[in-house]
Amino acid sequence: MKRANERKPLIRTIYTADPSAHVFDGKIYIYPSHDFAHDCPDDDNGDQYIMKDYHVLSMEDLDSECVDNGLALSEDDVPWVSRQMWAPDCVKVDGKFYLVFPAKDHDGIFRIGVAVSDSPTGPFVPQKDYIQGSYSIDPAVLVDDDERIYCYYGGLWGGQLEMWQSGSFDENAHRPEGDEDALGPMFAEFNREMNAFITEPKHLEILDENGQKLKAKDEDRRYFEGPWMHKYNGKYYLSYSTGTTHYLCYAEGDRPDGPFTYKGRIMEPVLGWTTHHSIVEIAGEWYLFYHDCELSGGITHERCVKYTTLQIAKDGTIETIHPYE
Ligand code: FUB
Q: Is 47 a catalytic residue?
């Protein structure tokens, strides 16, 4: 049976998207993007996603009201940011909360930055510069059982991931297509101070059932954006959006840095172009936090975050969700 607020907009006073949900000290915190309402046209570069700040949402439990805790970080406070504060995540390390977020620098290049607070709701104080060696969008951070801190990130098209294939930024870089290997998300390890990567960022491999890398033409399964990592029975589950085909999919691996084998679909398309999620265990059950455009009646850059129950079998298989059934 569905809970009263399940699959409904959790907050109606602002537009929110890309929810990264966590339980910190027994309470649910959601770190979403804050969509900015406007009438400008959409494009494939994502210019319609004009986000200027972050608000943290919280819930005492899954049945209680979702609270907007107000401004947590603004683009005006971050020296290296010019615009577009996209999908963030938050991680607790040694008692401090680190908001990890992508934004464009003053050259229009997406980078990943970090801001710190003593409170899960902020306000967050940004580090002066972005993480050196970082690029692209959608960071998701896993603190593993051995306390190592891993960052998964990257997104195609407006997320600029293709533009870094040579090792430096090339606006005109070729986009993998057809039988060429698809690009996987990026992986790097953070230091404990959360102000540097301590490993060289690398692409993760997502393989098909025959151990072959997914191809660019396989748009139903290949990685596009929005990575998330959860662990279940000691295995690593990389989930992500397929972008152009609008699915949430997942792949399984034995190590945090893969390789991962494609396993299936978590969710069928939602209303809107983008789909972006997080997976979190709350009081022994698993939940998917996601967004759609119900609140705005389908405007792609005016989204709302929701959650629903996720069924995970003992072997880690995830039941596909049909969001409007
Ligand atoms: O919210 C802006 C972008 O849209 C995110 O970075 C992507 O994952 C997509 O949801």
A: no
For the Cβ of 17 lying below 6 angstroms from any atom of ligand 1, the answer is yes
CATH code: domain 15-309 is: 2.115.10.20
Q: Whose CA is nearest to atom 3 of ligand 1?
A: 86
Tell me how far the alpha carbon of residue 314 lies from the centroid of ligand 1, in angstroms. 31
Identify whether 225 is a catalytic site residue.
yes
In order of 6, 54, 97, 119, 248, the CA distances from 59 in angstroms are 13, 17, 17, 15, 24
For strands 27-35 and 67-74, give the pairing: unpaired
Closest atom of ligand 1 to 18 CA is 10
Number of CB atoms found within 10 A of residue 137's CB: 27
Pairwise CA distance, residues 304 & 325, whole Å: 18
Q: What is the pLDDT of residues 87-141, one digit of tens each?
A: 999 999 999 999 999 999 999 999 999 999 999 999 999 999 999 999 999 999 9
Q: Are strands 260-267 and 206-207 parallel, antiparallel or unpaired?
A: parallel
Low-confidence ranges of the chain (pLDDT < 70): none
Residue 42, pLDDT score: 87
pTM assigned to the model: 0.98
Q: Is the CB of 248 under 6 A from ligand 1?
A: no
Please indicate whether residue 20, judged by its CB atom, sits closer than 6 Å to ligand 1. no
